[in-house]
Amino acid sequence: MYPFSYTKAADTRQALTAGRNGGRYIAGGTTLVDLMRETVERPRTLVDISALPLREITVAKRGALRIGALVRMADVAAHRGVRALYPVISEALELSASAQLRNMATIGGNIMQRTRCTYFRDVNADCNKREPGSGCAALHGVNRTHAILGTSDDCVATHPSDVAVAFAALEATVVLLGPDGERTVPFANFLLKPGSTPNREQALRRGELITAVEIPALPRPLRSGYLKVRDRQSYEFALTSAAVALHISGGVIRQARVAAGGVGTVPWKLPAVERELIGKQPSDTLWATAAERAADGARPLQHNRFKVELLKRTVERQLRIVGGGK
User: Fold this and answer.
1) Helix (H) and strand (E) counts for the chain?
2) Which residues span the membrane (predicted)?
3) Helix axes 306-323, 284-291, angle to 10 degrees
4) Which stretch of 22-26, 143-147, 299-303 has the lowest confidence by average pLDDT?
5) Among 24, 60, 108, 241, which residue carries the largest CB count within 10 Å?
């Protein structure tokens, strides 16, 4: 680990000043500290923001939800309002990491975590995300766990967060605070596809701080849930996953929100699947037909072609679990 300085911000003003001067924010530290230990990340200054007042969960009228950036994953998962209104969020969190990590890691840190690509974490391997212009070893290496959606010739790494898939499905908003004041960014625009600049992963400006994630009020009744498919039952990242939220009224699907994880360079919204569902009655036939659109645009690699079919089956299964059928 390389030498670095450490400061603890007493308030938001101090945090923003330190961030504007190049400091890296840290709270739970469950990702950044690992990367520093592996010398993948070499920040000169760490700014501890754990004392900031960003730990509230607020349920507004009609079910809108605001989650402070420093709320622990375990606390969000256990919150009565979250479990009642958006079980897809609780389920995604409970299927993430270990209980010990969920007790430490924050929501803001979770969506900021970096890829689990082994080449990114091996400082001797070529990686455009870690060292722009060096190449991507995963393209022609062992790429079984890599992305099939949103890839480019410069990067095929997946985003590892489970709850980010739920946020993408629910069309959340990220609230940011920086030197120029507060602004909001739709979750779909917050995490960036790699393109030719895979080293730029979030739509953050210099010194900006995540203060909250907001979920809009969605029509009721709303059924939702999260399904994760992985190589082993616990403490493993997704090969594929599906977050589904359906508003069914009068026997017809009025609204559908569907996203996938483990297959995209960012949590992958599935608008083609959603369009297939709207205005139709739930049925096993409908779930299968809609799920066929889940892999539209996929570009599988040598070792992860299986993800195309696995994604379709995962989405179909979760549609059936959430929506029922006949």
Assistant:
1) 12, 12
2) none
3) 150
4) 22-26
5) 241
Tell me the one-letter amino acid at 302. Q
Nearest Cα to Cα of residue 34 among 94, 105, 138: 105
Do 238 and 218 contact (CB within 8 A), yes or no? no
The strands making up 24-26's β-sheet, listed across from edge to edge, are 5-8, 45-48, 24-26
Retrieve residue 86's tokens: 């958006």
How big is the CA angle at 170 (ends 48 and 151), to the nearest 5 degrees?
A: 75
239: nearest Cα among 317, 148, 321, 163: 148
Domains of the chain (ranges, CATH numbers): 1-50 (3.30.43.10), 57-112+163-215 (3.30.465.10)
Tokens 């080449």, located at residue: 119
Tell me the pLDDT tens digit for each residue of 174-196. 999 999 999 999 999 999 999 99
Q: Are strands 65-68 and 45-48 parallel, antiparallel or unpaired?
A: unpaired
d(CA 79, CA 66): 12
75 touches 28 (CB < 8 A): no
> What is the spatial distance between Cα 213 and Cα 65, in angstroms, rounded to a whole number?
8
